[in-house]
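pinned: reference chain
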Amino acid sequence: MSVPATVSAASAQARWPRLRRPDPVALMALPAFAYLAASYGWPLIALLGHSLSGPDGISLAPFAQFLSDPYSWRVIGNTVRSALFVTLVCLLAGYPAAIALARARGAVQALLLLSVILPLSVGVVVKAYAWQIVLRRDGVVSQSLVGLGIWDAPQRLLFTETGLVIGAAKIFLPFMILPIYSVIRLIDPRLSEAAATLGASPARRFLTVTLPLTLPGIVSGIAFVFSLAVSMYVVPSLVIGDRYQTLATLTGRAFLFMRDERLGSTTAVILLAFAVAVVVGSTALARRLGGGGRS
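pinned: its structure tokens
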């Protein structure tokens, strides 16, 4: 019994599915991807290759030499510790600000949103120099703490790790507020009202309704801020100086002053590994949390 031609054609198509025609809208992203590949991807590949190159070919000796030095671990500790503190300060200050921004209406919301976005138009160098003025012994922060009775006498915050955290947190704060704000806007306010009708207190409503639903925004904000803070170069250079080295400042110093391209490539790759690990992990976590919230 012969098989009909339509049936055999359908079975052949099932075994060898026809390639889908590319979406014309997706093709619009090709110029941007090509630019990023040429200006960002290729230099990173060259940097990785340079860090792995040795007299006898590919070698991990530069990484082993760097990680065997106790000073290198001190630099890594400075980098991770300052980035964690900056991220924590931004989270504690940015979460309430994001809630206030999402719940505001009309001109108040526009004014708050402008106050968050407008600082992004000012260069990092200008902001870092401004913090040099604010954090010195006779600056606004020192005088305010003396006026509040927290300090007995003016003290210098400039060239200290505390001053670095304060200055960097102010610069990166919008990158924490905006992702959380975008998630809070999507939350139905009737969910909190329903919990209130069931007798839940404001604290319980926050812990059981608001906080779980905003976790994807929190994770995204943490990823943004930590990635920026762990790789910051201008802010530590101007606010705290050369005596407090991080991976980013050590990379710049290796390339610009020491002319040690292998050391600069090695520290840059380690720094990139930190940033990529945080971004990939946070993306997977945010997707999981978002999927759980939808289910």
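why pinned: The domain at 61-294 is CATH 1.10.3720.10 (MetI-like fold). The chain is about 75% helix and 0% strand.
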